[in-house]
């Protein structure tokens, strides 16, 4: 069993669209949506929800105003500026800013502070016609969570081992932060989706720096190649110098969005050329593994 | 006035809108709060006139005082303190959140702090737009302290436009918290709609006035417009798909710079927002 992450650095380059196509091409797999902050793989995989359970991580501080003597020590010591004096003149913890470090509880002279578990999202397990999907939903405003991504990946791995699946396909999040690090740690290989724009190239270089730190082999897909053919050449030159294979070059095709609106992948368009392109992503990828 | 440009979904056009609006509203300060992948200067194309290191306090354990009691490791809520009994006690840099708790619990006063560099704050200027950009080092997991620092560096009295990170997680709260108005850039697809609804939960909870910009407005369906009517959120602008905009964007040229029409539209947008606020 091998774990593959689809990543990009920049958002909106086409990660989820590529995963939706690979979901239909690759046999024997489990799907994991590691973008818990904007979980979109469920939109294009026709899932039937099997389980949805609350996910909580970490603690948030709470101040008991009856016990609080307003000594101000907690507010001074909180490194996250999470403790404020509210309109009633009482000390209060701003839920969103609190990191659950427990310093306020430690230093409160009258034991007015306690820490409570706070639910930060949902863990979902769904059946799809393309294999089972582990996906999450981070509640709006919660800390983007590497831990939640690791949790989903562990669930996916357990299921893949149990069912003797050959692959785990992980749809990654944009950026390079904890949620992305958690989606890359320990995978067997990555597919980076980019587009011929200066922004996407800048962001891809940063994500490739991250994957190289983890010694993860990467193949590159250049999406929306018609935007700027000369930048496509630049990406190819750069990829050659970095010894990174180009897996496929995909043109802009308005039908891809039309089908996405019907909750379908580019494969359902039924265009031989387009299907062939997405198949070549996978076939070329198998060679680098 | 502070206007934050956010989106939910990545790649919908936040940076294109933020930079175009900044050029139209100049003189103005532009903050690039997407510190994981800062792209505003790719579109502003200004030269850097200053850069400062951004550091966070990081615990250092004095091996002569430490007696391996493990109280720091027991207290650390993030499991960042690593104790190798009799050998070494140290903090894992990417996991530590600099709360200072280990220093407080250490009975031997063995822990002190020194700054640990985790990114840069870069300053650029062009077309009367002063850009303050946060750039986190590759491998760093937590962007929040750097985003907060950007807001501490705002010049007084200037109008400010903030280019936010994608998503609807806490970093978006940090970059919209002090805004007077939030512009949400989306696209008319199920992905755009789904992530817009999530972003609206953040702006609703912060009680911020919002308006929507539909980018590539003619590629999809009308669900965003239906949502905006249901929730009485104004649609401030529609930008139809154009291969010219896409091609210029790919070279780092925003619509307000190459097109008089779009420059006028972004000036109107800015005045429109000022009136709403």
In short:
The complex is a heterodimer of chains A (289) and B (277). Chain A is an alpha/beta fold and 289 residues long.
Provide an overview of this structure.
The complex is a heterodimer of chains A (289) and B (277). The relative contact order of chain A is 0.20. With 289 residues, chain A is α/β, with parallel strands linked by helices. Helices cover 34% and strands 26% of the residues of chain A. The radius of gyration of chain A is 22 Å and the shape is elongated. In chain A, the strands form 2 sheets. Chain A has a 9-stranded mixed sheet, with helices on both faces. A two-stranded antiparallel sheet of chain A has the order 4-5. Chain A is built from 9 helices and 11 strands. In chain A, α1 packs across α9 and α4 packs parallel to α5. Chain B has 277 residues and is of the alpha/beta class. Chain B has 11 helices and 11 strands. In chain B, the strands form 2 sheets. A 9-stranded mixed sheet of chain B has the order 3-6-7-2-8-1-9-10-11, sandwiched between helices. In chain B, β10, α8 and β11 form a beta-alpha-beta unit. In chain B, α1 packs across α11. The relative contact order of chain B is 0.21. The model of chain B has no long low-confidence stretch (mean pLDDT 96). The chains are: A alpha/beta (289), B alpha/beta (277). At the A-B interface, α3, α5, α6 and α8 of A face α4, α6, α7 and α9 of B.
Uncertain stretches of 5 or more adjacent residues of chain A? none
- Structural class of chain A comes to alpha/beta
Straight-line distance between termini of chain B: 8 Å
The helix content of chain B is 25-40%
Q: What form of chain B results from the Cα inertia axes?
A: elongated
Number of helices of chain B: 11
Straight-line N-to-C gap of chain A: 12 Å
Measured on Cα atoms, how large is the radius of gyration of chain A? Answer: 22 Å
Helix content of chain A: 25-40%
Please trace the helix and strand order of chain B, writing H or E for each element.
Answer: EHEHEHEEHEEHEHEHEHEHHH
- The Cα radius of gyration of chain B reads 22 Å
Strand count, sense and barrel status of the largest sheet of chain A are: 9 strands, mixed
Within the largest sheet of chain A, what's the order of strands? 3-6-7-2-8-1-9-10-11
Largest sheet of chain B: 9 strands, mixed
Record the strand order, biggest sheet of chain B.
Answer: 3-6-7-2-8-1-9-10-11
């Amino acid at each position: 069993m091998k774990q593959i992450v689809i990543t990009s650095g920049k958002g909106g380059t086409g990660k989820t669209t590529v995963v939706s196509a690979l979901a239909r091409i690759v046999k024997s797999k489990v799907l994991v949506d590691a973008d818990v902050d904007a979980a979109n793989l469920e939109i294009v995989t026709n899932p039937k929800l099997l389980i949805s359970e609350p996910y909580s991580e970490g603690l948030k501080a709470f101040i008991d105003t009856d016990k609080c003597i307003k000594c101000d020590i907690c507010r001074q010591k909180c490194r996250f500026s999470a403790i404020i004096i509210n309109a009633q003149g009482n000390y209060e913890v701003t839920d969103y800013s609190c990191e659950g470090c427990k310093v306020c509880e430690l230093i409160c002279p009258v034991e007015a502070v306690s820490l409570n578990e706070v639910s930060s999202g949902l863990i979902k397990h769904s059946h799809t016609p393309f294999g089972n999907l582990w996906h999450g939903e981070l509640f709006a405003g919660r800390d983007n969570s590497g831990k939640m991504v690791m949790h989903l990946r562990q669930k996916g791995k357990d299921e893949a081992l149990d069912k003797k699946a050959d692959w785990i396909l992980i749809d990654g999040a944009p950026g390079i932060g904890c949620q992305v690090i958690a989606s890359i740690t320990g995978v067997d290989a990555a597919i980076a989706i980019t587009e011929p724009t200066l922004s996407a190239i800048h962001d891809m270089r940063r994500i490739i720096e991250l994957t190289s730190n983890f010694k993860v082999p990467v193949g590159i897909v250049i999406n929306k190649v018609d935007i700027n053919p000369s930048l496509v050449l630049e990406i190819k030159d750069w990829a050659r110098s970095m010894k990174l294979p180009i897996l496929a070059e995909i043109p802009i095709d308005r039908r891809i969005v039309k089908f996405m609106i019907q909750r379908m992948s580019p494969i359902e368009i039924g265009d031989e050329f387009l299907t062939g392109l997405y198949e070549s992503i996978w076939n070329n990828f198998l060679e680098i593994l | 006035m502070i206007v934050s440009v956010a989106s939910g979904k990545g790649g919908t056009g936040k940076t294109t809108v933020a930079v175009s609006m900044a050029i139209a509203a100049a003189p103005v300060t532009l903050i690039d709060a997407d510190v994981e992948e800062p792209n505003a200067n790719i579109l502003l194309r200004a030269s850097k006139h200053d850069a400062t290191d951004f550091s966070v306090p990081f615990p250092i354990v004095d091996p002569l005082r430490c007696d391996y009691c493990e109280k720091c490791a027991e207290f650390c809520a993030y499991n960042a303190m690593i104790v190798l009994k009799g050998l070494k006690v140290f903090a894992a840099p990417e996991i530590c959140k600099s709360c200072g708790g280990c220093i407080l619990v250490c009975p031997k006063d063995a822990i002190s702090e020194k700054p640990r560099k985790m990114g840069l704050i870069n300053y650029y200027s062009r077309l009367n737009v002063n850009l303050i950009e946060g750039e986190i080092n590759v491998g760093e997991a937590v962007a929040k302290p750097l985003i907060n620092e950007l807001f501490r560096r705002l010049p007084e009295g200037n109008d400010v436009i903030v280019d936010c990170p994608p998503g609807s997680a806490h970093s978006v709260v940090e970059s919209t918290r002090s805004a007077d108005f939030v512009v949400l850039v989306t696209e008319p697809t199920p992905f755009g709609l789904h992530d817009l609804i999530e972003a609206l939960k953040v702006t609703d909870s912060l009680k911020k006035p919002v308006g929507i910009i539909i980018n590539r407005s003619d590629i999809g369906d009308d669900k965003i417009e239906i949502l905006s009517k249901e929730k009485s959120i104004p649609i401030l602008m529609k930008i139809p798909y154009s291969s010219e905009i896409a091609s210029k964007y790919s070279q780092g040229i925003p619509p307000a710079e190459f097109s008089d029409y779009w420059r006028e539209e972004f000036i109107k947008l800015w005045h429109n927002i000022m009136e709403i606020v």
